[in-house]
Design goal:
Blueprint lengths: L8 H6 L20 H23 L14 E5 L17 E5 L9
Antiparallel strand pairs: 1-2
Length: 107
């Protein structure tokens, strides 16, 4: 320590934190892998192969499209009168129905 209480840098570098010398780990190959990581990689590759196989063999939709048509019909509701709203004298209420699909014109 110096006179004003600062540590010298050489003393700080030499002072160990725990006092126990650090033990070096044995050298490992960069290609080393644990058993659980190997199993996880194999399972992941298996799922990827299953998804790709399903995408290629199961997604066999016919090419092209079929045109869809709408056949609207409207049924006027005569029961809609000024009892329900004051605008009934000016406007009418129609019920939308699809021809060939909706048979009943009453609600």
């Amino acid at each position: 320590m110096t006179v004003n209480g600062e540590l010298r840098t050489k003393e700080v570098e030499k002072t160990p934190e725990t006092g126990i010398p650090a033990r070096r780990l044995p050298w490992r190959s960069p290609w080393a892998i644990t058993f659980s990581a190997l199993v996880a990689a194999i399972v992941g590759i298996g799922f990827l192969v299953a998804v790709l196989h399903s995408s290629v063999t199961r997604q066999l939709d016919p090419k092209g499209c079929r045109m869809s048509y709408m056949r609207p019909s409207y049924a006027k509701l005569n029961e809609f009168d000024t009892e329900h709203t004051r605008l009934a004298s000016k406007y009418s209420l129609y019920l939308y129905r699809e021809q060939g699909v909706d048979r009943d014109t009453k609600v």
